[in-house]
Amino acid sequence: MQRPIHRLGILVIILFASLILTNCSGSGGGSAPPPPPPPPPITPTGVPYPPASVIATAISDTQINIGWSSVSDATSYNVYRSEQTGTAYTYTVVSGTTATIVSDTTVTSGTAYYYVVSGTNSLGEGPLSAEVGSTPALPSGTLTITGTIKYEDKEYDQSVGHTGNTSLKTVRFAEVELVNASSSVTLWSTRTNSNGVYSISTSTNTGTKVYVRVLSSAAPVGVNTVSVMDLSPAFYAVKTTDFTLNGETTVNLTIPTTNTADGAFNILDVLTSGYKFVETYAAMSTPDLNAYWQPNSSYGTYFCNGPDSTYCIRGAGIYVFSNSNYDTDEFDDDVLWHEFGHFIADSFSNDASPGGFHSLDDNTQDLRLSWSEGWGNFFPTAVKYWLNATDPALLSANPSITPLSQYVDTETGGLYLTVDIGAPETDACIDDNCKYASNEISNANVLWSTMNASQLSMDKIWEVFDNYLPTLGLSYPVNIENFWDGWLASYPTDSTALHAVFNDRLIDYSADGYETNNTPVTAQSFTVGLGQPHRIYGNGDIDYVRFTVPITAIYTIRTSTLRNGADTYLTLFDSTGLNVIYMNDNATTQPLLPPNNTTALSSQIVQNLVPGTYYVSVKSSQLKPASAGRYGSYTLSITSP
After folding, report:
1. Running DSSP on this structure, what letter comes out for residue 235?
2. What whole-number distance in Å separates Cα of residue 641 and Cα of residue 236?
3. 118 by DSSP, 3-state: which?
4. Does residue 319 sit in helix, strand or coil?
5. Whose CA is closest to 598, among 629, 565, 624, 626?
6. Phi then psi for 59, rounded to 5 degrees?
7. How far apart are CA 565 and CA 598, in angstroms?
8. Exposed, middle or buried: residue 125 (CB in 10 Å: 0-12, 13-18, 19+)?
9. What's the number of CA atoms in the CB half-sphere (13 Å) around residue 428?
10. Would you state the pLDDT for residue 475?
11. Which residue segments constitute the domains of the chain, with CATH numbers given?
12. What is the pLDDT of residue 27?
């Protein structure tokens, strides 16, 4: 595709010449009659008149430029296209442009196209202009350069990290330029296809010395781009050797690992696969994404949804840096897809993660963090699962050796970490800690198992992720509870299958065996000196117990072993079950937003009680921090020294 900027001057000249010819009537050198009076500035209804002097000019076999005269009171313009004259204009070239010239690059050589233009203002859209047509075609004397562009990828596994083996992969959907070797002026540009093949047709003179250059920018889906740049910011670019234009020419390009830019093209390829994966599920296109990679930086790899003066100096995007171990991530596909997963959550769903430090075997995490990181840990496995079914050659790890569920992060000379999301106990969970809603690997495992369960699927995961979670609002503490609620709201018949997946990680979202005990009348008997496990599940769930005190003494009533984000609120009642003796939210003095753990969120009442019957209620605290959940489990105990 030829760059529009190199032909704008020609179009303006054509437009100006057309205006001159339109106004020069008469013969024999006599003076021309005066031009007709201009139309009133606006139509009677207040919307703009149709633009005049519309011209459509084929610039190449893949581009038509459309220009028109400006219209008084038009604040913007719309351009429409049809492939048949005088019919409905089924394709919108552009909406709301303030320019008076646009390029249509979605055309096919030899096909006739017809265009109309309208003006718009605050009162609406005005009438359509007269129709103009144009047919893109190769100019005479065309020379064609074709070729395939590839880069060298590094293979990895879960035992040693990068194995030392490499393979060649095509550079897909990337921008390719034909450049004048003497002036460094870009003559034409196009993009590679899904097989890394490009084709450039040029009318540049035979004998001109040129080279082909590929840039680290791709358009995997439609016009939306993913770009890999350094922090300056500038694209990474690799060029061929210079050659002289002379007839049909084949020019291939291979980028080896010895070329620093090779890492940028692996980042580009991995993110391109992420785009294509999301395209299979998303109703709307994935937004543009910038990735910033610069060797020898040491902040680690992360996603930013906005600018930050220290870590995100170029604004939103994925920053691919080294960590303190110089764990360079440009060939760590799973790490790149993890951060791309955060980008997708920010673009399509609802991510309320507070960020901060997290570890794989911590099962007392903030529920918002464990969901966000769980999604990020699951996302690479989902992409690889899809690639293995659609194009396994794009994988950098052999699935017969490295399971598709294996998350691998390499570092120089070996492995930084590895975890099998499908079976985390095998290599990542210290003391079997990858369980409960408050662990990120547990969340990832739930998603992986849900994707692979016969009644469940990735389609349903995406439906909840893309359609239900965003309805909760940006300030809502989104976590795996909401995923559960959204799934059952959309697919209630899946409850048994979904519960089996969750329960495998000890995330039990169901009523406990003491229900229904939501009132003093239905309270269950409790024996002093014993512990009793309970679950809080469902809106408004309150657990009542009834106990008898045989002697006057100091009694301690407490909740402990809080799991799955539970935050309890404890109330002691007299023998009627109605009059409150004492209440407690948190057993220990903590900051306003305590961490989501059993110490900060448990409750405790210590009271001197006389013989008689008493009631205790336990419910989810209305003052719980955003880190906790509405559900969860706990153990209730009543003891006396």
Report:
1. B
2. 72
3. strand
4. strand
5. 565
6. -90, -35
7. 9
8. middle
9. 30
10. 85
11. 4-134 (2.60.40.10), 141-331 (2.60.40.10), 339-503 (no CATH), 524-639 (2.60.120.380)
12. 29
Mean pLDDT to the nearest integer, 149-171? 96
Contact 407, 427 (CB under 8 A): no
Task: Assess contact for 611 and 551: CB atoms under 8 A.
Answer: yes
> From CA 199, how far away is CA 212, in angstroms rounded?
11
Neighbours of 112 (CB within 10 A): 13
- Beta-strand relationship, 143-157 and 113-121: unpaired
Average pLDDT score over the chain: 88
Helix, strand or coil, per DSSP, at residue 554: strand
CA-based nearest residue to 591, from 565, 623, 559: 623
Report CA torsion sign: 419, 424, 425, 431. positive
Helix 480-490 vs helix 495-503: angle between axes, to the nearest 10 degrees? 160
**Please, how many CA atoms are within 13 Å of residue 447, restricted to the half-sphere of its CB?**
33
With beta carbons less than 8 A apart as the criterion, state whether 176 and 237 touch.
no
- Confidence label for 426 from pLDDT (cuts 50, 70 and 90): confident
Q: What is the pLDDT of residues 205-244, one digit of tens each?
A: 778 999 999 999 999 998 899 999 999 999 999 999 999 9
Confidence of residue 325 (pLDDT cuts 50, 70, 90): low
The strand pairing partners of 554, in sequence order, are 608
Q: What is the DSSP letter of 640?
A: -
Count of positions (residues) in the chain: 641
Please answer whether residues 606 and 555 qualify as being in contact, where contact means their C-beta atoms are separated by less than 8 angstroms. Answer: yes
Cβ atoms of 88 and 94 within 8 Å: the answer is: no
Name the residue among 500, 508, 457 with its Cα closest to residue 480: 508
pLDDT at 86: 85
Secondary structure, 3-state, 466-513? HHHHHHHCCCCCCCHHHHHHHHHHHCHHHHHHHHHHHHCCCCCCCCCC
Between strands 289-293 and 317-320, the pairing is: parallel
Bridge partners of 166, per DSSP, are 154
The pLDDT score that the predictor gives to residue 18 is 29
Q: How far is CA 48 from the centre of its chain?
A: 40
Evaluate the omega torsion of the peptide bond into residue 202 and state whether it is cis, within 30 degrees of 0: no
